Amino acid sequence: MVKKLQGETFLLSANELRSGKVVFFTSKGWSSSSSEAIKIKVDEIDRYEEISIKEEKKCIIISPKFVELDDFGNIKNLRDKIRNSGITIKI
Amino acid sequence: MYKYSDIDKKIIASRVKQFENQVNRRLEGKLTEEEFKPLRLMNGLYLQLHAYMLRIAIPYGELSSKQLRKIAFIADKYDKGYGHFTTRQNIQFNWPKLLEVPEILSELSSVEMHAIQTSGNCIRNISSDHLAGLTLNEIEDPRPWCEIIRKWSTFHPEFSFLPRKFKIAVIGCAEDRAAMLVHDIGLRIIKRKNQVGFEIFVGGGQGRTPIIGKKIRDFLPKKDILNYLEAILTTYNQEGRRDNIYKARIKILVREFGIEKFRSLVEENFSKLSNKELEIDDKSIEEIFGFFRLPPLKPNTNQIPSKNNHEYQNWIKQNVIPHKIQGYSIVQISLKAPKKPPGDATSNQMIALAEISEKFSFSEIRVTHEQNLVLPHVSNEELFNLWNQLKIQNLATPNLGLITDTICCPGMDYCALATARSIPISQKISSHFNNYLKQKEIGDLKIKISGCINACGHHHVGNIGILGLDRKGQEFYQITLGGSAKEDAAIGEIVGPSFSENDLIDAIEKILDTYKKHKRDKSDDFLSVFRRIGIKEFKKDLYDNFTKKA
Amino acid sequence: MIILQKKHEHKNHYKKIKEQDFLEKNIRNGSILSISQWREAKHLVQEQKIDVAVELSSNACSLSDKDEISKAAMVQINFETFKDGRPFTFAKILRKKHNFKGELRAVGHVLPDQFVFLIRCGFDSVEIKEEDKDIWLEILEMDEGLYYQP
């Protein structure tokens, strides 16, 4: 998961196993709100990767990934932005 | 349409139970995600960008009103009130919860539906011509054959762990309305010396390596079709690459071996491994055909009602075609209304359509691979009434086959694989060209839009193909020209550097200008002009005038 | 590890010979050989009329010489991953084209959900962890014997 990470700050995100909902790792566990998510520095990645593996084993989440933040602390790339804020079209 | 036997019902019910067992084991941690993933894919459950996605099988695009009502019910109860029709005639829900999927599958089984093998490395939905059984120049209705092949491919013990997904299409006439030539196996029903049989193509596909299928068999007697398919699948299962998912489709194998070597392997398997029990006798054929007879239509001289209403007239001209039985018409319903996501239908629309089909079309609805719907048997004298009812539901957009009738994948709004959004592009095109006369002037033109190189929007075979790319974090769109998904199948050529979202409409207008410049008469459509003048003219006009380099 | 042959647990009559112990004199009834060991020892096996098994990896079974392999008393496919569909075709061909009548066993990474498929393709048995026996039998029990293929 961490092989090709670029950038300095990240959020840990995943999908909830039972519902499929997008969730982010906060100090109080997983939340659907990215604003409460822990900001993770590059040198902390390994520690959080281990956490994500444990959480997956507990059957809470699947498909964990690190979401890159830009210099202002906002989600950087477009796909992650859409994943965070929802579809950009009206149904 | 086909009706489940008791055995069919038992098999589906058993599968629902089995999946429930698998979900429970997953939740208890007795199955890892790696182990569970192929199992849930085989039940049509994907993980996408925002949530799970459940893809429901609509075998060869055939739906009853009862089934459509159930789909609407599921959309409301378990999802967000809408579904998306796909390029393989299936329907997708974008927000199901894993916990609720066994319940959803149980609901589906009550109307003879399921989500079996709509994903995963197995044989997928058998797709077909949406006009099957309805036109005069058909050699034979392909749907019974789709049903025969569907059964054979369902829970096949040998072919459930293929190197990659496997897609089969069957058509019954010279015209290809099912993109048969870009399928892993394409079957066309033909007649040779008064005998009806199959012409067989293999190794077609799109994605990262678009290839038109190669003919492997000139003529195969009907009764041998399952044994021959087994021979092809046996070869593919053994020899297909498993080291690289981008090289694992049968098209790569056929290209690597060459069609001659591939054919000889298949013919060897066909002669040495055929199973007498897989031969289809005339009695079985007749039995299956019995499910697909026309409803009681009485030929008559009723004309299409003439009304002094432009919109209605446009709709008749564009969306309605003659049925093979005089006095009836085939009505095509566009799901590409302006401002709406292409290929989507709300639960309200589905419920209305179910009622409409019962009133006007013997409770039968079909899904096309171009993400539209069909009411197959409508009495001419009812057409104005029908149009009014469709209009209320925003299902009467008169754009079948025109520039705003795009094929469009879900793109980055929904899909974790996408590199760009596709739906907003389709909507931009839809708004910009939202004038029937303007569209009619342009004529028949298929624009197909994919949000990434996996080509789920079939951009390779669009007359104009649009491929969404990521260039340094920005969405850019590459244009291809000259593709075709019909019997004259062709892969489009890249016209040049890609365009930003803002420049894309201008680029399309420039391309249309070149086309209009060289257009000889009304019947000279875009593809004909392209084939006559070649890509150079388009390139020149497009890029010489485009000072902004992407 | 136990051997499951449909509903029944069987005694495992076969045992692998470690590579370093591979000497012809160590081959006896119930030895499991690799394909290259089998080639070397074939004459001995036929002379002494002993029951010997050959093990193939799921990766190697497609390209294997099935004629040669069909002479063994038992053939064992080691699934490197359960996602590999090649052993299913291998089993069909071994049975149908080469008329193999011996035991065909699946070992390695197989899921209980594949049991019925394995049996229908010609496998007789699987090697599984003892603690998994219940789930394998539970899933086998769910099968109602209704299939779309002969």
Count every beta strand of chain A, where a strand is a DSSP E run of 2 or more residues.
Answer: 5
Looking at how many chains there are and whether they match, the oligomeric state comes to heterotrimer
What is the strand content of chain A?
A: 25-35%
CATH architecture of chain C: Alpha-Beta Barrel
Alpha-carbon distance between the two ends of chain A = 33 Å
Number of domains of chain C: 1
Categorize the overall geometry of chain A.
globular
Mean pLDDT of chain A: 93
The CATH homologous superfamily name of chain C equals Aldolase class I
Radius of gyration of chain A: 13 Å
Whole-number mean pLDDT of chain C: 92
Structure summarized in a few sentences:
With 91 residues, chain A is α+β, with helices and mostly antiparallel strands.
Give a structural overview.
The complex is a heterotrimer of chains A (91), B (550) and C (150). With 91 residues, chain A is α+β, with helices and mostly antiparallel strands. Chain A has one domain (9-85). Helix content of chain A is 23%, strand content 29%. Chain A is built from two helices and five strands; from the N terminus they run ββββαβα. Chain A has helices at residues 45-57, 78-85, and strands spanning 9-16, 22-26, 29-31, 40-41, 61-68. In chain A, strands 1, 2, 3, 4 and 5 form a five-stranded antiparallel β-sheet that branches. Chain B contains 17 helices and 21 strands. Chain B is globular. Chain B starts with 5 loop residues before the first helix and ends in a 6-residue tail after the last helix. In chain B, 56% of the residues are buried. Chain C contains five helices and eight strands; from the N terminus they run ββββαβαβαβαβα. Chain C has 150 residues and is of the alpha/beta class. Chain C has a single domain (17-142), classed as Aldolase class I (TIM Barrel, Alpha-Beta Barrel). Chains in contact: A-B, B-C. The interface between B and C is medium-sized, with 37 and 31 residues.
Quick tags:
heterotrimer; A: 91 residues; alpha+beta; 5 strands; 23% helix; 29% strand; C: 150 residues; alpha/beta; TIM Barrel; eight-stranded mixed β-sheet; 23% strand; globular
List the helices and strands and how they pair.
The complex is a heterotrimer of chains A (91), B (550) and C (150).
Chain A: E1 9-16, E2 22-26, E3 29-31, E4 40-41, H1 45-57, E5 61-68, H2 78-85
Antiparallel strand pairs in A: 1-2, 1-4, 1-5, 2-3
Chain B: H1 6-27, H2 33-41, E1 45-47, E2 52-56, E3 62-64, H3 65-78, E4 82-85, E5 91-93, H4 101-109, E6 127-128, H5 143-153, E7 168-171, E8 185-192, E9 195-202, E10 214-221, H6 225-239, H7 250-257, H8 259-273, H9 282-289, H10 310-319, E11 320-322, E12 328-333, E13 344-346, H11 347-360, E14 364-367, E15 373-379, H12 383-392, E16 407-408, H13 423-432, H14 436-442, E17 447-450, E18 464-471, E19 474-481, E20 493-494, E21 499-500, H15 501-518, H16 526-533, H17 535-544
Parallel strand pairs in B: 6-7, 7-8, 16-17, 17-18
Antiparallel strand pairs in B: 1-2, 2-5, 3-14, 4-5, 4-13, 8-9, 9-10, 11-12, 12-15, 14-15, 18-19, 19-20, 19-21
Helix pairs in contact in B: 1-2, 1-4, 3-11, 6-8, 7-8, 15-16, 15-17
Chain C: E1 2-5, E2 8-10, E3 15-16, E4 31-34, H1 35-48, E5 53-57, H2 66-69, E6 74-79, H3 86-96, E7 103-108, H4 115-121, E8 125-128, H5 133-142
Parallel strand pairs in C: 3-4, 4-5, 5-6, 6-7, 7-8
Antiparallel strand pairs in C: 1-2, 1-8
